[in-house]
# Entry
Amino acid sequence: MNAPSDAPLLTLDDPLIIAGRAYRSRLLVGTGKYKDFAQTRAAIDASGAEIVTVAIRRTNIGQNPNEPSLLEHLPPSKFTLLPNTAGCFSADEAVRTLKLARELLDGHALVKLEVLGDAHTLFPNVRQTLCAAETLVKDGFEVMVYTSDDPVTARELEALGCVAIMPLASLIGSGMGILNPWNLRLIIEQSKIPVLVDAGVGTASDAAVAMELGCAGVLMNTAIALAQDPILMAGAMKKAVEAGREAFRAGRMPRKYYAASPSSPTTGLIG
# Structure
């Protein structure tokens, strides 16, 4: 259903390419904060997402055999699971967590790295992130990396071999939207790998703005899971990401202080 496509890229209209694999959806979603696994699956189905991120330290995917497993509701045959290191505050901790995920998921290499520097804001620790990224890439992982919106750090992470850069738009779980579009544009313009907004999206218009800026995709969790109607919001986010991408590809009209020429023809008017 939503597994990554094995079809030739030319058969897909504007695919998202991550680590050489093609995806139809540019919306990536998390699996935390829902009331139960059934609601998680319903929201993800409504979102159309193919890549689903999983916090290994907080979600059971087999490490706790006596508890319900997320894999019963989100089988890897239908979704690309993206193990993440949410809750890790050091490079060593993050590397250990993703090695565990690789064992649990039969050698799965695509992962999302995040190393936090502050328990209150969940702002990333850039030094530890760089250290962990270097270790993981050398160990054969395909690293999608959560980071600050600093263009220099983004360039360094790409040079280390990360397969996607995921700068925050605002703080994790804040719902504050795109607070620094200029830095995001700088990162997008310099990057040769996908740039996806990770963190801060609160509603559909935020997702559309991220895509209109030229982001390759958007990852979100809280904005859907904590909406009053998560299923309805998931569908709204799907539409917003698609509309934002189409607007970016279409190319918006230039901004002008005023328009001297009318939008309607002036020839052939009566009188």
